[in-house]
UniProtKB/TrEMBL annotation:
General function of this protein: Catalyzes the reversible conversion of 3-phosphohydroxypyruvate to phosphoserine and of 3-hydroxy-2-oxo-4-phosphonooxybutanoate to phosphohydroxythreonine.
Catalytic activity reported: O-phospho-L-serine + 2-oxoglutarate = 3-phosphooxypyruvate + L-glutamate; 4-(phosphooxy)-L-threonine + 2-oxoglutarate = (R)-3-hydroxy-2-oxo-4-phosphooxybutanoate + L-glutamate
PANTHER family: PHOSPHOSERINE AMINOTRANSFERASE (PTHR43247)
Cofactor: pyridoxal 5'-phosphate
EC supergroup of this enzyme: transferase
Gene3D superfamilies referenced in this protein's UniProt entry, alphabetically: Aspartate Aminotransferase, domain 1, Type I PLP-dependent aspartate aminotransferase-like (Major domain)
Record-listed N6-(pyridoxal phosphate)lysine modification sites: K192
GO biological process: L-serine biosynthetic process; pyridoxine biosynthetic process
Domain Aminotransferase class V: 4-344
Binding site for pyridoxal 5'-phosphate: W102, T149, D168, Q191, N233, T234
One GO CC term, this protein: cytoplasm
Subunit structure: Homodimer.
Protein's name according to its UniProt entry: Phosphoserine aminotransferase
Length: 356
């Protein structure tokens, strides 16, 4: 079989070692005679799996005491509603930083439940200077998206905030070290750097629990899930199991410090190839370019189909940009090996030689 490198933005590539480990345990987890997919979520076996997963994630991120880790469902879209239902009252104001598509989806949903104030609005090429943000007085919280998966804009800093800082980290969590203590709540879908789709991760400070509005559905109340240790209802058990294997894979490779260095290497290699070509262009200013999602365009969009066909022939898959913006996009999450980025860079240069 030809070597394939999957540049999908999510669901995304998983570490091969993780998939092989899951394959070996698929029908019989640790001599239990059961697949993880068959286990009771309240049984001893799965209790061990979820307990280890949480402990390993706490170690990876250095999650301090006073924070709960919740393994949930519904993706970031559920969180867009859960946040205002749990952290605001109808007359409260939420400050948002709008840096792209996913910021705007979160803003649209939040407006159903509370007042929204735009502290800053980006133009798609970068992050507005923090000194220019216009924050509202007494906001319930400040929300931002640390990495816009579609636009390829990534925050190189953690904003300062006097109110709880809330962040959608769906596409760059676990890609670098993080000071969790700076945040009130962090959330993200698992299907990029954590595991398969179906799992959503929430890290929430204890003092933000227990304040849900009276009309909040039981399943949308963070306190309910925290009190039940993520087992109020049947959780996405197999996705949690895979996430736990990913956490161990990261720890075995030196944790997030080592992973950040590899991600810097991959992103630098790809951006340097694009910039040096005179043929490809990237819409994001250099200080704000994502290490995870690299959007780019060809000099002549009439060559897009030929580019994608040639890439597929080389085993370079899922490079088509999001339908809302077009162009190309290479997602190079933690599990994308350096060799995959090298193969893409070789193809980028070869395509210029034949079509430039």
């Amino acid at each position: 079989m030809t070597q394939v490198y999957n540049f999908s933005s999510g669901p995304a590539v998983l570490p091969r070692e993780v998939m092989l480990a899951a394959q070996a345990e698929f029908t019989d987890w640790h001599g239990s005679g059961m697949s993880v997919m068959e286990m009771s979520h309240r049984g001893r076996e799965f209790t061990q799996i979820i307990t280890e997963a949480e402990a390993d994630l706490r170690k990876l991120l250095g999650v301090p005491s006073g924070y709960k880790i919740l393994f949930m469902q519904g993706g970031a879209h559920f969180q867009f509603a859960m946040l205002p239902l749990n952290l605001t009252q109808p007359d409260d104001t939420i400050d948002f930083v709008d840096t792209g598509h996913w910021s705007r989806i979160a803003i649209k949903e939040a407006r159903r439940y509370a007042k929204v104030h735009l502290a800053a609005v980006g133009d798609g090429s970068g992050i507005p200077a923090e000194a220019d943000w216009q924050r509202s007085k007494g906001a319930a919280y400040l929300h931002y998206c640390s990495n816009e998966t579609i636009g390829g804009v990534e925050f190189p800093f953690i904003p300062q905030s006097d109110v709880p800082l809330v962040c959608d980290m769906s596409s760059n969590i676990l890609s670098r070290p993080l000071d969790v203590s700076r945040f009130g709540l962090i959330y993200g879908g698992a299907q990029k750097n954590i595991g398969p789709s179906g799992l959503t991760l929430v890290i929430v400070r204890d003092d933000l629990l227990g304040h849900a509005r009276s009309e909040t559905p039981t399943m949308l109340d963070y306190q309910i899930h925290a009190a039940a240790d993520s087992l109020y209802n049947t959780p996405p058990t197999y996705a949690i199991y895979i996430a736990g294997l990913v956490f161990k894979w990261l720890l075995d490779r030196g944790g997030l410090v080592a992973m950040e260095q590899q991600n810097i290497e991959k992103a630098s290699m790809l951006y340097e190839t694009l910039d040096a070509s005179g043929f490809y262009s990237c819409p994001v200013e250099r200080p704000y370019r994502s290490r995870m999602n690299v959007p780019f365009r060809l000099a002549d969009e009439r060559l897009d189909d030929a580019f994608l066909e040639g890439a597929k022939a080389r085993g370079l898959l899922q490079l088509k940009g999001h339908r809302s913006v077009g162009g190309m996009r290479a997602s190079i999450y933690n599990a994308m090996p350096v060799e995959g980025v090298k193969a893409l860079c070789d193809y980028l240069r070869d395509f210029v030689r034949t079509h430039g």
